[in-house]
Amino acid sequence: MAERTRLPAVQQPDWGTELAAVVAELRRRPALVTPSSCYSLQRELAAVAAGAALVIQAGDCAERFTDTMAGKLDLLTALADQVEVATGVPVVRVGRFAGQYAKPRSESTETTAHGPLPVYRGDAVNSPDEHPEARVADARRLLAAYDHSATALDALFLRDLLPPFGGTDHPHSVTYASHEALLLDYEHALVREDDLQGGDYGSSGHLLWIGERTRAVDGAHIAFAEAITNPVGVKIGPDATAADVATLVTRLAHGHAPGRLSLITRLGPRLGQTLPRLLDELGPLARDVLWLCDPLHGNNLRNRHGQKTRVVDDVVAEVAACCAVLRDHGLALAGLHLETTPEPVVECVGSAPDLDRRLDHYTTVCDARLNAEQAAVVVATALDAGWGATVAGDSETGSTA
Ligand code: PEP
Ligand code: CO
C-alpha cells in the first residue's frame, strides 16, 4: 500500500526530477513516530468518544523550519489546562506541530511587490521569500521536513510515547503531533508496517488530517487516510454534502475503534444553515465520529490594508453556534482545532472595526493565528457555551437521538 494510487491528487507541487531519489531516501529512513504511540493516541481518542475526555488540537497554520518548539508546547498545555481546570475532564493534547510544513492554497499565484509569483506552499515545498527562484518547488525540502520533524519530536520527547492509560504515572501529560497529510509523495514514503495492530500506519505524525481542498471521496488523499491505521481527521467546509460525509464516515471510521475519525468543521458564518442539515441527513452515522470545531478557516478575511486576518468575535460566534447545534442533535463537541502562536503577535483582531487598522505585529506566512490571550478567550467561550459539561449520548433531544 505504500505505493501512490493512481487516483487524482490535487494540490501536489510540480517536483521535478529529484523527487524519485528523495522518495527512495525517505523510504530508507526510520519512522518518525512509533505505531505504539499512534495507538496510544487512538486509545485516548476512544475515551473522548466515550465522553470521558476532550481534545485540544492547536498550533501554527504553517510551521517554519526555523521554529523552536518550547513555546508551542507551553501554549497547547496552557489551553488544555484551562479546559481541565474548568471542566474536571481530562484533555487530549494534539499539537498542530512537528510536521505542519505544507499548505494547500486556493490560488496558485499571488501578487507581490515584485510582481506575480507562484504561491508559498509551506517550507516542505518552497520559500516565502518574494523572488521567483524561492517559489520553485524543491523536492530536497521533503528531506529537510523529515529532519525538522525529527528534531521537533525529539525536543518534545514525542517519538515513542508510553500508553497513558497503561500505567498510573502520567495520566494526561502526553502530547501528540499532527499535521495535514497533504504531500502524498512524502506521506506514502513514510508509511510503515503497524506491527501492533496489523496493516500499515503513517509514521510522519500521530494524527494526520485531510484538508478541505483535498477531501474528495474519489481522490488520493482519502484513499491514503483509508489505508493507514492512525487516528485521522477530515476538514468539513460549508460545501460538503451529507452523501460525501456519510461516505467518509463509512470508509474511515467503520471497522476501526471509536475515536478513529475526527470530523473538523470549519463552516464560518454558514454554520447555522449547513451543520443542522448535515447532522439531520447523517442521522446515526453522526455518532460514529468525533466532532471538532475549527472556528478559524471559515472566517478568513482581509483587512483594509490587504492583510489576512480573522475577527475574534466571528470566531467565538462560530464556537458557540457549533456547541449549540451539536447539543440540539444529541451530540457533544469533542474538541477545538485552533491556529495559535505563542509569539506576541496580533494577526487576528477583536472586532470588526479593528479591520481598519494596519497590523504591525504580524509574522505569519499563511493564515492569521490567535495569540495566547485570544486563544484563551476562544476556549473560554466554548466552556461558557457548555463544552465539556455534557457527555455524548446524554441528551435525548434531536433527530439522531
Ligand atoms: C489549515 O488547516 O491550515 C487549512 C488549510 O484548513 P482547511 O483545509 O480547513 O481550509
Ligand atoms: Co490555516
UniProtKB/TrEMBL annotation:
<dbReference type="InterPro" id="IPR002480">
    <property type="entry name" value="DAHP_synth_2"/>
</dbReference>
<keyword id="KW-0170">Cobalt</keyword>
<feature type="binding site">
    <location>
        <begin position="212"/>
        <end position="213"/>
    </location>
    <ligand>
        <name>phosphoenolpyruvate</name>
    </ligand>
</feature>
<comment type="similarity">
    <text>Belongs to the class-II DAHP synthase family.</text>
</comment>
<keyword id="KW-0028">Amino-acid biosynthesis</keyword>
<dbReference type="InterPro" id="IPR013785">
    <property type="entry name" value="Aldolase_TIM"/>
</dbReference>
<dbReference type="GO" id="GO:0008652">
    <property type="term" value="P:amino acid biosynthetic process"/>
</dbReference>
<feature type="binding site">
    <location>
        <position position="266"/>
    </location>
    <ligand>
        <name>phosphoenolpyruvate</name>
    </ligand>
</feature>
<feature type="binding site">
    <location>
        <position position="235"/>
    </location>
    <ligand>
        <name>phosphoenolpyruvate</name>
    </ligand>
</feature>
<feature type="binding site">
    <location>
        <position position="367"/>
    </location>
    <ligand>
        <name>Mn(2+)</name>
    </ligand>
</feature>
<dbReference type="GO" id="GO:0003849">
    <property type="term" value="F:3-deoxy-7-phosphoheptulonate synthase activity"/>
</dbReference>
<comment type="pathway">
    <text>Metabolic intermediate biosynthesis; chorismate biosynthesis; chorismate from D-erythrose 4-phosphate and phosphoenolpyruvate: step 1/7.</text>
</comment>
<feature type="binding site">
    <location>
        <position position="297"/>
    </location>
    <ligand>
        <name>Mn(2+)</name>
    </ligand>
</feature>
<dbReference type="Pfam" id="PF01474">
    <property type="entry name" value="DAHP_synth_2"/>
</dbReference>
<dbReference type="GO" id="GO:0009073">
    <property type="term" value="P:aromatic amino acid family biosynthetic process"/>
</dbReference>
<feature type="binding site">
    <location>
        <position position="61"/>
    </location>
    <ligand>
        <name>Mn(2+)</name>
    </ligand>
</feature>
<dbReference type="GO" id="GO:0009423">
    <property type="term" value="P:chorismate biosynthetic process"/>
</dbReference>
<feature type="region of interest" description="Disordered">
    <location>
        <begin position="103"/>
        <end position="132"/>
    </location>
</feature>
<feature type="binding site">
    <location>
        <position position="96"/>
    </location>
    <ligand>
        <name>phosphoenolpyruvate</name>
    </ligand>
</feature>
<keyword id="KW-0104">Cadmium</keyword>
<protein>
    <recommendedName>
        <fullName>Phospho-2-dehydro-3-deoxyheptonate aldolase</fullName>
        <ecNumber>2.5.1.54</ecNumber>
    </recommendedName>
</protein>
<keyword id="KW-0464">Manganese</keyword>
<feature type="binding site">
    <location>
        <position position="339"/>
    </location>
    <ligand>
        <name>Mn(2+)</name>
    </ligand>
</feature>
<keyword id="KW-0808">Transferase</keyword>
<keyword id="KW-0057">Aromatic amino acid biosynthesis</keyword>
